UniProtKB/TrEMBL annotation:
Domain of life: Eukaryota
Organism: Elysia crispata (lettuce slug)
Protein name: Uncharacterized protein
């Protein structure tokens, strides 16, 4: 099966703020691989949310890698977060 490749970039303006985003993806269901990158900025009345999501999922090999980085700016201050994970089920690593 031919992999599905998706690339999308855009900006959405609402009455509460703006949403800017970049999405990339590769999906190959027969091989079990999913690669994805998502970068975005959400501007609201109370502050901004910036985020980066990146992931690789390979179900046949049992590997899952994921990274999520973000900054939430509010009226009271900033919140920064980092989530990382590696799951390798065939080798028992998580």
């Amino acid at each position: 099966m031919v992999p599905l490749c998706v690339s999308q970039e855009g900006a959405i303006s609402t009455h509460t703020g703006d949403i800017e985003f970049l999405m990339e993806g590769t999906i190959s269901t027969l091989s079990g691989d999913i690669e994805f990158l998502m970068v975005g900025t959400i501007s609201t009345l109370s502050g901004d949310i910036e985020f980066l999501m990146e992931g690789t999922i390979s179900t046949l090999s049992g590997d899952i890698e994921f990274l999520m980085v973000g900054t939430i700016s509010t009226l009271s201050g900033d919140v920064e977060f980092l989530m990382e994970g590696t799951l390798s089920t065939l080798t028992g690593e998580n």
